[in-house]
Amino acid sequence: MSPLRFPIAWSMVLWAAAFSLASELPTPSKAPVPVDHFPDTLHAVVWRNWGLVPTERLATVLETTPENITQIATSMGLPASVNVPPEMATRGYITLVRRNWHLLPYEQLLPLLSLTEEEFAHRLREDDFLLIKLGNLKPDCPKVVYQTPSASAKARAAEIKSLVEANFGEVMQQPAEPRFSFIEELSQVDPSREPATPLPRDDQHPRFIYSYFAMFGDPLSDPSLDPFPDGLLARLQQRGVNGVWLHVVLRDLAPPSPAFPEFGAEHRERLANLAKLVERARKYNIDVYLYMNEPRAMPAEFFSKRESLRGVPDPGSPVPYFAMCTSTPEVRAWVSDSLAYVFERVPHLGGVFTISASENLTNCSSKFTQAQCPRCKDRTPSDILVEINTAIAEGVHRSAPDAKVIAWDWGWARHGDASGTVARLPKDIWLMSVSEWSLPIERGGVKATIGEYAISAVGPGPRATKHWQVAQEHGLRTLAKVQFNVTWEIAAVPYVPVMNLIAQHNANLAEAKLDGQMLSWSLGGYPSPNLELARLFAENPNQTIDQALDQLAVSTYGEAAAPDVRLAWQKFSDGYSEFPYAGMYTGPQHSGPANLLYLQPTGYAPGMVCYPYDALSRWSAPFPADVYASQFAKMAEGFASGLQHLEAAAKKATAAKQAFVADDLNVARAAQMHFATVSQQARFIAARDRWQAAKDPAEKEAAKAAALEALEQELQTAVRFYPVVAADSRIGYEASNHYFYVPQDVIEKVINCDDLKRKLAASN
Question: Which residues of 13-45 are buried (b: 16+ CB within 10 A; e: fewer)?
Answer without folding.
Answer: ebbeebbeeeebbbeeeeebbebebbbbbbbbb
